Amino acid sequence: MSGPFSIANWQAWFKDWSFFADGFLRTLYISMLGLIFTLIIGLVVGILLCGHNRVVISLCKGYMSFFQNTPLVIQIFIYYNVLPKLGIRLGVVAIGVMGLALYTGAYAADIVRSAIKAVPTGRMEAASSQGFTYLQSMAHVVLPQAIKIGLPPMTNQAVNLIKNSSVLAVIAGGELMYCADSWSGSNLIYGPTFVMTGVLYLCICLPISLLARYLEKRSVRNA
After folding, report:
1. Short-list 143, 112, 113, CA closest to 127
2. Which distant-in-sequence residues (6+ apart) come within 8 Å of 56 by Cβ?
3. Residue 24: what pLDDT?
4. What CA–CA distances, in Å, run from 62 to 42, 43, 52, 71, 103?
5. Rounded CA gap, 15 and 27, in Å?
6. Neighbour count for residue 31 (Cβ, 10 Å)
7. CA proximity to 101, closest of 84, 76, 83, 82
């Protein structure tokens, strides 16, 4: 068998599989940190959007509008090329985590806001009548119910975050896509490289996608 999928090409790929394993683990590491900060950003901004301070709401909407309507790759280039000019030097992992968190956090904030708004307003009023402050009402009454509503779409955002981590290849982030691009360019072996890279991404994203579908079906049954 000759061509891009020849046996020799597959043998070469499996011989250097550890190189891709390192990229796979780096992708998991960056994605996990990015997801943690995404949840923090989404929760804080989502709650602020449900407040009554117009200035704060405008700032939150401005943040969301910018990050939702500009490509992630441009944002990553800005962090990588512009921040050092301002005296801020970050490693590629820090840039990756920050870029993914700020970008995905803008969508997560929208999910949190929608989930909070979906909780009947009477629940908040009932908590206030019992002497709860706004933050106490959010923490003990609204958010536990909003989590059930927002969990399925938030899980989908986790999948998007993992796939978007491939953008870090443009700044030599060392993640899976960068390993695939650099190895295939050095060895001129493209078929097995990108097929197996796709399989490795599938191993991460498919279980999360199935979880999202399960959560959506369960939320429909419980509605």
Report:
1. 143
2. 48
3. 94
4. 14, 16, 16, 16, 13
5. 21
6. 24
7. 76
Chain CA centroid to CA 211, Å:
16
Closest to 60 (Cα-Cα) out of 76, 34, 41: 41
Burial class (CB in 10 A: 0-12, 13-18, 19+), 160: middle
The 10s digit of each residue's pLDDT in 60-88 is: 999 999 999 999 999 999 999 999 999 99
Residue holding tokens 């078929």? Answer: 191
92: Cβ–Cβ under 8 A, 6 or more apart, which residues?
80, 168, 171, 172, 173, 174
CA distance 162 to 125: 39
Q: What is the C-alpha to C-alpha distance for residues 153 and 86, in angstroms, rounded to an integer?
A: 36
Distances (CA, A) of 21 to 10, 104, 179, 221: 16, 25, 9, 40
Stretches in the chain below the pLDDT threshold 50: none
* Burial (Cβ within 10 Å: 0-12, 13-18, ≥19) of residue 12: middle
Instruction: Report the distance separating Cα 15 and Cα 8, nearest Å.
Output: 10
Per-residue confidence (pLDDT) for residue 137, from 0 to 100: 80
Looking at residue 131, its pLDDT comes to 77
Q: What's the chain's Rg over C-alpha atoms?
A: 21
Characterize 203-213 residue by residue with b for buried, 16 or more Cβ atoms within 10 angstroms of its Cβ, and e for exposed: ebbeeeeebbe
CA dist 125 → 44, 137, 143, 155, 190 (Å)? 21, 9, 14, 30, 60
